[in-house]
Design a protein that fits this description.
Blueprint lengths: L2 H9 L5 H22 L9 H30 L7 E4 L9 E3 L3
Antiparallel strand pairs: 1-2
Helix pairs in contact: 1-3, 2-3
């Protein structure tokens, strides 16, 4: 199994080519910083599985950021720019069923 397959397995979803390029670069930079500060943990951080996990985390962070931005734009379009979110009706990050006041 290659690094991309591992990252998709950890993420639980496919990774688009655009996401892959950005996430791989970000993950490699993060790995380089970790290695310079913390070392390779007897080679554990040099294994492909470790980089794949960092890539999956980068994709998840990017997707979450995109969704958050889209929700903010949607709320602004509804004139609810400054209204607080009262309750999240699901524990899933990917479930967009958010309840707000006066929408």
């Amino acid at each position: 199994m290659n690094i991309r397959d591992l990252a998709e397995k950890y993420l639980g979803r496919k990774i688009s080519p655009i996401e892959w390029d950005a996430a791989k670069e970000a993950a490699q930079q993060k790995l380089d910083r970790i290695l310079s500060r913390e070392g390779d943990s007897d080679g554990q951080r040099l294994r492909p599985q470790y980089l794949a996990q960092l890539i999956a985390e980068a994709v998840m962070a990017s997707r979450f950021s995109s969704i958050t931005y889209e929700v903010m734009e949607f709320m602004a379009a509804l004139g609810a720019k400054e209204k607080p979110v009262n309750k999240v009706t699901s524990n899933s990050v990917w479930d967009a069923s958010i309840v707000t006041e006066n929408i």
